[in-house]
């Protein structure tokens, strides 16, 4: 196992323990809602956002206990978005992470409440744990996650996405949609991890640039992987989104150009870290992983 793989595995298993501890226990009232929350968050997921938060926190000299609270808040928002995204009123998916989606395993009303409660829990965590010695900075962290997940972030990106079904978007519009929908939370994960430690504003700006690039690269790669899966398993024409005819980087650019775009974004992400030394190694490795991943 490479040094990076051991780093990833160690943090993933540590983070699973953190989530198990922070989520309400399933035997506490309301048991069904709590069980559904745990079902939707635990055992599954690559934990890319928490890994980015850990890596940024390490770079900023933060304590791991602080970073993982911030990372958990981000991951709970991510999990809520997946639960809602899978519902019949949105993507209407029956499988997520290899198991029935929350509304299939439980019911729609429960899935709606799971998303709501996970979102509230995320902000509860950010406000009840001390994440910075500077109270004003901690308040700024709460705002950062609120903006990243709201109408000028993930929820806004989802709204643009839903409105784009069956339409032809231009590249800048598609990019803006993904900067909101996927990129905002990835950037927030990195910045929140960094805010748990100490960096100068110029360094935070560099990290934000890195986050913007890896956030977009993550989505481009996701589109390429989806298109390959469609072609392989469904015999569909490469480039057609299997779900609902939504525009993607692949439908717009073709697979080769989408791959090139991911490679360029990868290069830009590494360039944004040029001012950091060896301490940014994990962030560089995570950029490599995001672009080269196969799942
Ligand atoms: C419902 C407000 C609201 C927002 C939904 C993020 C999102 C917005 C929907 C997810 C749809 C989707 C498949 C987007 C593509 C990129 C993405 C976020 C994939 C899932 O993230 P991963 O790969 O998932 O990190 P895991 O399971 O590894 O956590």
Automatic annotation (TrEMBL):
One of its GO terms (biological process) is terpenoid biosynthetic process. Keywords: Isoprene biosynthesis, Magnesium, Metal-binding, Transferase. Its cofactor is Mg(2+). InterPro entries: Isoprenoid_synthase_dom_sf, Polyprenyl_synt, Polyprenyl_synt_CS, Prenyl_diphosphate_synthase. The keyword Metal-binding applies. One of its GO terms (cellular component) is cytoplasm. GO terms for molecular function: metal ion binding; prenyltransferase activity. Pfam families: polyprenyl_synt. Belongs to the FPP/GGPP synthase family. This is Farnesyl diphosphate synthase. It comes from Sideroxyarcus emersonii.
